[in-house]
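Limitations
The structure tokens in this dataset are predictions for the assembled complex, not deposited experimental models. Users should treat interface geometry with appropriate caution, especially where small molecules or nucleic acid strands are included. An illustrative entry is reproduced here so readers can see what is and is not provided.
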Amino acid sequence: MARIIVVTSGKGGVGKTTTSAAIAMGLAKRGHKTAVIDFDVGLRNLDLILGCERRVVYDFINVINGEASLNQALIRDKNCNMLYILPASQTRDKDALTQEGVGKVLEELARDFQYVVCDSPAGIEKGANLALYFADDAFVVTNPEISSVRDSDRMLGILSSKSRRAERGEEPIKEYLLLTRYDSDRVKLGEMLSLNDVQEILSLQLLGIIPESKSVLTASNAGIPVILDEKSEAGQAYADVVARYLGEDRPHRFIDGKQGFLRRLFGGKK
Amino acid sequence: MLNTLPVLEFKSSTFFAPILILFNNDLIAVEDALRAKIDLAPEFFRDSPLIIDLRELNRQQHDIDFNQLILILRKVGFFPVGIRGGNEQQNKQAHTLSIPVDTVREQGASIIIGETQKTEINPQVSPQPVTPAVKTPANPAPVPPVIPASTLITQPIRSGQRVYATGDLIIMSQVSAGAEIMAEGNIHVYNTLRGRALAGVHGNTSARIFCFDLQAELISIAGDYKTSEDLNKQTYHGPVQIYLQDHALIIKEIT
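Predicted assembly:
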């Protein structure tokens, strides 16, 4: 049985799809057969981040409606043969998702895969609710910024009350914090919330801090998940996240932005 | 024998179930009202467990044919799993029908509600009092003294969640901004209070709010309130208590 992970946040633009692509790739790279599903029906993006947009034939909604089989719709990643992508439909909207349909697809995936990563859309409407409903683990992606923290807090409330696990009274979804776009220089200047500020409100198990990094945008535009850019800080940070999720003990990096004296002096930023 | 795996284990857990509060002992009217409610949300009610609350009925001293009521509930698709507030006879009948009798939390039930479900978690059938078709003689069952039980919550109350307690409310975890906690009695928060806290919501002016760190958006006791704008004029270090004195909210540090 696969472990179902939802990557969620409430707020848009905080890095859910980047994170979904990175951790799915990270899990697959470590030899776990992983599927990643784009729940953002109508605003399909995950295929771009993973660089498989030219190979989309069938999508998630086709599978739900029985117009294609799961095997027809799943796209095998070109960088890693343990990673499969189930793209969203661009021509439909979230109403095309049904709880029954999503449940059936996840059940089928769970038989064959070790991890299923659900890339949630922003908001707290149907798409987001269905993305989290069947989850076992939740990666709550948060920016060090007050509105993002508030929205994540709201999402945590929904995770604990509206998931299948909550409805059945089972063990609750395991919630993890992923602090993205963290800029330790701006934190020091007091322009950005610090890790402590965020944790004071959310108090979650921290899975990792992803530093603000130019390599994220570069990787997205190139259609290569940033975790494959092993030289970049963001890529390393995501690799740490995957390792910690799998139970490895790795010290947290990028909190203080360990930069050399000269770089700090000239304000260089990677 | 060594190395034997346990056959079973007991775990404690919390479940949500709708509570049916009866105001009327006319079973025909009850059945009609139930069917009307179910028609509004058939999926929500299908095969739903149900707890029957007889407090109101017994307060009005209206007797009810309990066996008939259970038959009706099962007929329309509910699984009655408990009663509360029943008199001795009703409790005995419930026992015969293998329906548990809830006495522990009789006075202090709480619900945590994700806001869209709030109207459905506590469906009340025919809230307007209808004159009962059959008047029955007063039931001499002794009414137990009302001791409001307290509700203990250990998980964080997140933004958008609401908690209501009929007695005292004790929260061991934080209450986030955008959350709302309400109690007919006192409110204790042994952590940071950032959301809205309303104590004595049924007009109990002697209710108090206690918290470790006051950063609330709004505090209210028996309808008198202060918003964060008023609260922010002064900072409090350490735990505070809030009480009502001549219709004014007094905030005092606990030293």
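Some entries come with short summary sentences. For this one: Strands of chain A lie at 3-8, 34-38, 75-76, 83-86, 115-119, 137-142, 174-182, 205-211.
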